[in-house]
C-alpha cells in the first residue's frame, strides 16, 4: 500500500521518502530523496557508515510540505552528498530563511541525518 499525502491543490499523490537533518544548534530541515541511491546513502549515514556527509542542493523559495515550517526547500533533483563544499553555502536553516537571496545552494557542514522517513525508508 502506497502512503498518500495532500498536495497544495488538494489532490493526493505518493508521499516522498525524505531525510531529516539536524545542524548544530538543534535546527532541523528535511530534503526529499528522489532516487534509490540517495535513500540508500541517507540510510547509510543514519547507520553510521563512513560516507560523504554534507547534503548540498539548490535552494528553491516557496513553501513545501517536505520542509515545513521553512519557506524554502532543496530541489531534490540537485541533491548530492559531499565532503567538501564552499563556505558560502554553509549555514543553518534559519540563515537561509533570513536571507534566502544569499543562498543559491545550501550545504550545511554540521548537518547530520537523524531520520529517514517515507515509503522507501
Report a brief summary of the structure.
By secondary structure, the chain is an alpha+beta fold.
Descriptive account of the structure:
The protein has 121 residues and is α+β, with helices and mostly antiparallel strands. The protein has one domain. The protein contains 2 helices and 9 strands; from the N terminus they run ββββαβββαββ. The protein has helices spanning 36-46, 93-98; strands at residues 4-6, 12-14, 18-22, 28-32, 54-61, 72-74, 80-82, 105-106, 112-117. The strands form 3 sheets. Strands 5, 6, 7 and 8 form a 4-stranded antiparallel beta sheet that branches. A hairpin with a 5-residue loop joins β3 (18-22) and β4. It starts with a strand and ends with a strand. Mean pLDDT is 90; it is low at 1-10.
**Over the alpha carbons, how many angstroms does the gyration radius reach?**
14 Å
Instruction: Tell me the fraction of residues in β-strands, as a range.
Output: 25-35%
Helix content: 10-25%
Largest sheet report: 4 strands, antiparallel
Number of helices: 2
Q: Can you give keywords for this protein?
A:
3-stranded antiparallel sheet; BP74 N-terminal domain-containing protein; 4-stranded antiparallel sheet; BP74_N; 31% strand; 14% helix; single chain; alpha+beta; globular; 121 residues; 2 helices
